[in-house]
Amino acid sequence: MVRLLLLHSHWVDCWYTSRARIILKGVLGVKKKVGREREYTIRGVIFPTDWDEDDNIVAVVIDTEDEDEYFVTQNKKGKELCALVGKKIEVTGAVSEEQDGNRVLEVKRYNIVGGDEDEDE
Fold first, then answer.
1. Angstrom distances, CA of residue 110 to CA of 4, 26, 81, 106
2. Main-chain phi, psi angles of 78, to 5 degrees
3. Among 95, 88, 96, which residue's Cα sits nearest to residue 46?
4. In this structure, are 43 and 20 located in the same domain?
5. Which element (helix H / strand E) includes 77?
6. N or C: the chain end with fewer CB closer than 10 Å?
7. Whether residue 75 sits in one domain with residue 21
8. Whether 10 and 42 share a structural domain
9. What tens digit of pLDDT does each residue of 64-98 get?
10. Which pTM does this prediction carry?
């Protein structure tokens, strides 16, 4: 285990994986840098953004409590989220920003952390 000093004098315990990647323990929202992308863990609710001609959901966005939106790429894990519309989830993946300012998330892994958004109200 290694101890790192992050910005603002916060110490974080870290482990090196077999591939020399650093995994930060106990810090939500900060992970390792991946080229121009950064890997983050976020929590939010899944909403549809696009449908096909048969009204099947084909694209989704994750809306966080801070009202940030992350458009999900349609890789294998991203497509799985289309079936989870309305669910609260925790997602880890690479985040990049498009020229128009939209954040795009390539999902690496996810966990369902709550039921449908409507159930809490």
1. 26, 17, 9, 11
2. -65, -40
3. 88
4. no
5. helix 76-80
6. C
7. no
8. no
9. 998 899 999 999 999 999 999 999 999 999 999 88
10. 0.65
